[in-house]
Fold:
Amino acid sequence: MKRRTLYIILTIIITAMLVCLAFYLAWLWRDRVPDDKLTRPHTMDLPDDLWPQYRLTVQHDGRAHPNASLDGSLTKIWSTIDINEEYYTASKSSPAVDKDLIFIGADTGLLYAFWRENGTEAWSFQTRNSKNGIHGAPAFDNEKVYIGAYDGWLYALYKNNGTLAWESNLGDYIGSSPCLYDGVVYIGVEIKKPGGFLVGCDVKSGLEVFRSKEFGSHAHSTPSIDPNLGYAYIGANDDYVYCYDLKLKEEVWKFDCGGDVKSTPCIAGDILYLTSWDDKLHALDLSTGEEYFSFATQKNSMSSPSINSKGTHVYFGSHDEYIYCISSKGAKEHWKFKTNERILSSPTLVEKDNTVVCGSNDGYVYILDAETGVEIEKIDFEIAVTSVPVVVENQLYVFDDEGILHRFDAL
Structure:
């Protein structure tokens, strides 16, 4: 009888220890993204001398072309005229770089094309009158350049001369950047209500081919697309990030971030990364919207995350004035770098140099070591830089908030 009692007690103790171990392991791995989710083959079949849309690809992963490099002495080649009026504090337009021309939007409502060689104006196009003009980044294909404006219209212009190809009135405001995918231009659209939609228009005709159900608030976010799933992702000011099946034209899932989602989602492997005004970076499963982890900063963020090609580190800025590098495997801070003002810009990764390039409202563009966060160089623009720095070949393009586009070459 005593032996049986002892056996029961030992069984209970061992079972309790195994349960405790299971809970401990679950706690230890609670914030880890599974290794097989981190990376997926990503073909960048774009010419290395072009930057055709916001953050380069439809996944918006924040990486420059693998051949891009700023290794050398950065020398200013040219600066354009001042094209902004600066009466709206949202992030400014970011450049799209073609072979001969660079396209950029102004908060006056003008879309400009500047010659890449010398920075002189090739042409400009005036959108309809609106208080905030253009804040999105243009996108282009072989024939046309596309831009949305705060007049609520989406425009397609022939990129060689700036004449109008077509225009579509999609809502009351557009602050989002167009995303070109599979013959359709997708963009976030806002209505006064407040409300918003994800809308897609045929690139040839401008006819509307996709419209989501109405969001609960404005959509400042730019849509990102995963070509493998055929899903689009976009944030809204109703705290949600939405996932849509573009073929079935229906919502797949939505996730409540707990704060406005103004950033552009970043797709890497099977994971969606985004920042929110709940002061956090979120990592979600692309297919289900399940949250793998969140990482808290000290203030909100509208800086869009970037991730290295290995899928191991995520980079983003915050209103708390820091540029962060986070381990995607353990949701832990790898490093953070302090600037002197909030950061609305989004980082660009130059993996050939192992560097991160990011603007700050303190007037500087910082070039940091991607592994350590140590400052390598900073460029003083004497005014906030809220746009995304663009790195093409050995060239750095920066559009400052005053409305001057600069080109630097690494020589």
In short: Helices lie at 2-28, 35-38. The first strand starts at residue 74 and ends at 79. The radius of gyration is 23 Å. The chain is about 10% helix and 40% strand.
